[in-house]
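ok trying again, last paste got cut off:
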Amino acid sequence: MSGAVEARLAELGLTLPEVVPPLAAYQPAVISGSYVYTAGQLPMVEGKLPVTGKVGAEVTSDEAKQLARTCALNALAAVKSVTGDLDRIARVVKVTGFVASAADFTGQPAVLNGASELLGEVLGDKGVHARSAVGVAVLPLDAPVEVEVLVELTQA
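nice, full thing came through this time. structure:
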């Protein structure tokens, strides 16, 4: 049975994907105390990256913003994989986003708005968070964007 958060996803026309399997020796998400830490989530869709390359070169800022939304959706799937219920989210505390950037690209915050806006649409006030948007030379699998999320859980 799905709860209010998954009902909200459905209202937005979104489906929670399967958890993206780890690419190396790590877990997609772990619980520590009342927090869930996700691993960096790539914008995988059905096991594949829809696009690769650097933002500001092969990938437009608008494309990258949509990919960041996908990363955030994958992060929610990772959270659910360890909590069993997205309604346990008390709030999103922090989002850290990495943007594989062309040398002259400086629009990382606008790209990461894709993830931040999705979390706000899905979780309302619980989705408001602190954030870092970091430009990097390259990401795993030549992904344009990677997002990790820290959420606080309600008391069980």
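cool. The first strand starts at residue 29 and ends at 32. The first helix runs from residue 4 to 11.
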